[in-house]
## 1
Amino acid sequence: MFNKRKQPPIKSLVAYGSEIAGNFTFRDGLRIDGAVVGDIHAHEGQSSILVISESASVTGAIHADHIIISGHVNGPVHAALMLELQPKARIEGDVYYRALEMHQGATISGQMHPIGADEVKPTLKLAANNK
């Protein structure tokens, strides 16, 4: 309905208090509540979702289709389809996205690079504009 793709299930978890050092590859969905020091890549050829919770921190590059960030990321973020930044999200690095949803309070210390921006220029509307 409404052309929304069904999200893959979250099958993996890096729990609060856990720390992974090294590169990490996952299938379907991954939720991070702990810390990861290394690159995170979704398996190619499948739909993927990555959730970085408010208590989580990631130091390294991130690659997935749909990424939801509430915690801290130090490194580039590559969202092939959708990047959602919750109010407490903190990114120190460049972000690459096809669609972006950024809540008030989220911060990006880096450059923003829309994927496919050369094909279609997005329309910008200010939410506070009542005209």
## 2
Amino acid sequence: MPSESPDQADLARRLTAALAATRLAAAETLRWFGDPTLAIDHKADRSPVTAADRAAEGILRRELLAAFPADAFLGEETGATAGTSGYEWVVDPIDGTKSFIHGVPLYATLVGCRHGGRGVVGVIAMPALDELAYATVGGGAWHERGSAAAVPARVSPRTTLAESLVCSSDFVDFGRWSGGEAAGTEARRRLDAAAGLVRTWGDGYGYLLVATGRAEIMIDPRLNPWDAAAVEVVVSEAGGRFSDWRGRPRIDSGDGVATNGHVHESLLETLGLPA
């Protein structure tokens, strides 16, 4: 039977396993990064996938389920495996495959763990930047660069949209938002007008920037659970807030936004979407 509630010792064991598996998977992505012979396939939704994606996810699945064989697992490339422990690993081996294919280092390896529908562990790795952020619920968020010791990850103190750096994976996707093209396009127009600076430093990197105080907002019009599970925990434990576009604390709505918390309500008001 699944445990009722995870304790910190249990979360620490899962974080240790998550970090070890993430580092192995991240190293695997670097073996392929910048390889001009890398073959590219396309999935049913026309999104690209490579041998690097599959190999890295294979490592994550193997290592995490070896450490916790009763846990469930959901991966972008290999789908879902049921478990009995009440825990579920949710992973994206290369978040930002398009960047990866083009040799741009702003791709991430994301590993999240959930318990009872709640995120409890999150790891965001930037393999080509040698940067890492991780968190457990109630245990705070931490940031590593290179061989330097980990330091607390904290969101920025800025309180207005006019001061904020807004990141997104692709602003064109606002017009493809699941709630409707017109509403998404108009939400983007309002956000562009209100924000201090707008950049497409997206995918997991944008969420890392929020969690480490370098950006105030990361917004995705289209978001899958494997894109969100890890970043939700890291951003929240860094003092920020993650929600869908209507302010609900969910990772399965098809869209998502992370902020430093101070500008979250202002952002939701600016998006102007019906509840």
